[in-house]
Write a structure and sequence with these properties.
9 strands, seven-stranded mixed β-sheet, two-stranded antiparallel ribbon, alpha/beta, 15% strand
């Protein structure tokens, strides 16, 4: 590292994205945005962490957030010495603590040999970067998406994925559940002969978050507005206990041609909610 610690800087982001037009954005809106994403608090944490990276950094995050974990089914975790690689898939109820917690638990078990498939913007977090395979599905970089995923599954680390892509939403029946899971983890697990380990993570965001997400859907707003509030939701979920339920590995040979990859993805999703 060159000694420079990445910090969140809303003023710089707005200037980079909007140029001179950024000057026309009302200051109260900029201040509101800084408060909503907890710019000062996060930057203070990043400053304190300094050069810490990888799994130790994840555990530091959990301690900072006051998170306690109950892990059920730990005996279902394959041995680190069995010579095989696995794909770990989970529901995504929170958008913050769930990803950090799974990485901490699995990273500790597998001595740091884990990788997340994540949005490339998270590569800016020095502590998280060594555990990430950057994925970009938009713009020019989006054309390389298949190659990026392929490279991840061809590596020598276990893969952690949230196949829904977005954090969970409140369904019409009131339940908090993921949207449909994408089939990528099935396709790539079969081609790389990785068994799939289903994981259920407990927890939920605030009623405000789900109302906002549903309003945006009703108004056909394509931009993921709710995403702006994920950091705030993370802070609302401080000092809580979450349960991680680990299911038995599903052999990759299970995913045969009797169903489509999309149907198998839905099958594994249901397995997760049955844990």
């Amino acid at each position: 590292m060159d000694g420079t610690i990445f910090k969140i800087d809303i003023d710089k982001v707005l200037h980079d994205k909007a140029g001179k037009k950024a000057g026309y954005i009302p200051r109260f809106m900029v201040s509101w945005l800084k408060k909503t994403i907890h710019q000062e608090e996060i930057n203070a944490f990043l400053e304190e962490e300094g050069d810490r990276q990888g799994v130790p950094w994840l555990w530091d995050c959990l301690r900072y957030l006051g998170v306690e974990l109950k892990v059920e089914g730990r005996e279902n975790l394959p041995s680190p010495s069995d010579g095989k690689l696995y794909t770990f898939v989970s529901n995504h109820p929170l958008g913050g603590q769930d990803g950090v917690a799974l990485g901490a638990v699995l990273g500790e078990h597998y001595d740091g040999r884990i990788k997340y498939l994540v949005n490339d913007i998270l590569m800016n977090l020095h502590g998280l970067a060594p555990l990430c395979i950057p994925i970009n599905t938009t713009g020019k970089k989006g054309r390389d998406f298949p190659k990026m995923v392929e490279a991840g599954f061809a590596g020598n680390d276990h893969i952690i994925m949230f196949p829904a892509g977005l954090c969970s939403r409140r369904q019409k029946d009131g339940q908090i559940r993921d949207l449909a899971w994408k089939k990528t983890f099935i396709t790539k697990s079969v081609s790389s002969q990785r068994d799939v380990v289903p994981i259920y993570f407990s927890g939920h965001n605030s009623n405000f978050f789900y109302r906002l997400a549903n309003i945006c859907k009703w108004l056909h707003i394509k931009f993921n507005v709710a995403m702006l509030f994920l950091v705030d939701e993370m802070y609302k979920n401080r000092n809580k206990t979450f349960t991680i339920k680990i299911g038995k590995p599903i052999p990759w040979q299970t995913f045969d041609r009797s169903r489509s990859d999309q149907e198998w993805a839905a099958y594994v999703r249901e397995k997760v909610y049955q844990l």
